[in-house]
Design brief:
Blueprint: H1 2-18, E1 25-30, E2 38-47, E3 51-60, E4 72-84, E5 94-109, E6 117-135, E7 138-152, E8 163-164, E9 170-181
Antiparallel strand pairs: 1-2, 1-9, 2-3, 3-4, 4-5, 5-6, 6-7, 7-9, 8-9
């Protein structure tokens, strides 16, 4: 595994030294999202003035069910990135801040009652910050954020796009996404 990781990093660094083209689109997969019970895919498009728009959707239930509650549903999110600072590399590279809106809707088995399906419908508005870099056509995007959530929460507090923290209204989220630029 170490050898594979080393080769991946070496390939990314070597391809970055050959990069000269600026890409305006990316398709990304949230790294290890299937371990948390869903599969997340996103599309990002470069806009004028050091901005990008990103739309992400996920299928809840397409992954490992860590709470053993058989969830089934979807999550949709939209984020508008504003690249900041002097390290903006054009296109899809640099440090950014972004407002983000997330909607999560799914059914799951209740923990205390057998054979009863419960419903969770939550919205969250987050402020996030992160860094995104592309190596030729390979992209890595890492970010973290917090904000306000409202709606009908799940018993677990986890909504496959954000988690509730100590209340039903504080939402936290972080991610690492791997992608392909074109």
């Amino acid at each position: 595994m170490k050898r594979f990781c080393f080769m991946l990093v070496a390939l990314a660094i070597a391809s970055n030294s050959m990069a000269g083209e600026v890409y305006n689109n990316a398709v990304k997969v949230t790294f290890l999202s299937w371990v948390t019970g869903s599969t997340k895919i996103s599309y990002e498009r470069v806009l004028p003035n050091k901005q990008t728009a990103e739309f992400c959707t996920s299928l809840i239930g397409a992954g490992y069910d860590k709470f053993q509650n058989d969830p089934l549903g979807f999550t949709m999110r939209y984020a508008h990135k504003f690249f900041v600072g002097d390290n903006y590399g054009g296109g899809l590279t640099g440090t950014y801040v972004r407002p983000e809106v997330i909607y999560s809707h799914y059914n799951y088995n209740a923990q205390d009652v057998l054979q009863m399906r419960m419903q969770a419908r939550m919205c969250a508005v987050l402020a996030t910050a992160g860094y995104q870099i592309n190596f030729n056509r390979f992209l890595i995007d890492a970010w973290a954020g917090a904000g306000y959530a409202f709606g009908l929460p799940a018993e677990t507090g986890y909504h496959h796009g954000f988690a509730l923290w100590r209340s039903d209204n504080v939402a936290l989220s972080f991610s690492v996404r791997l992608g392909y630029c074109f």
